[in-house]
Amino acid sequence: MRYSRVLPLLLGAMLGLTSCVPAFVPPGTTTTFILVRHAERDPGLDPPLNEEGMIRAEALLNVLRENGVTAIYCTDLLRNRATVQPLADELGLTLNVINPALYINTPSAADLVVNQMLANDAGGTVLWCGNIGSTAGTTGINEEIYKRLGGTGTSPDRYRDLYVMVVPAGMPPHVVKARYGRRSSLDP
Question: Among residues 151, 67, 153, which one has the least CA distance to residue 114?
Fold first, then answer.
């Protein structure tokens, strides 16, 4: 059995239940979401990944290349695209980029993104690469998407956080909070 087929079974055995599944999950489907923060970058408005970030993007590729990712979504910023582009290239996927101007109203943007992911990719394994804050001072898109999918507690806000959320229709999601790559020099 391929590892990509084992991942949902393995995660199901390891996971704890969280809050209710969003009502908009199509009946009869189970969708797996993988949530990460973009990799490390230097300060600035839209800087590229720094050396540490490039190493993390490679680590993400190595962790997810054989785990059945069927779609990749990210904020349309250089650091986010560069974090997931190596995986997209390896898998032959096109990035679904989300305009960060939408994050002025982050809760509304999260609704839009989750609805788009479920409309286009329900039943698949969807990677989301977002951000933890906004220029408007509101909650970050990662936190809002995590909540929309039924997550509780801390959302993926460290550079090495990798949250796997298995969202079965009509049931609470299962969440595994994991890490990938080395500890970041930029995390507290």
Answer: 151
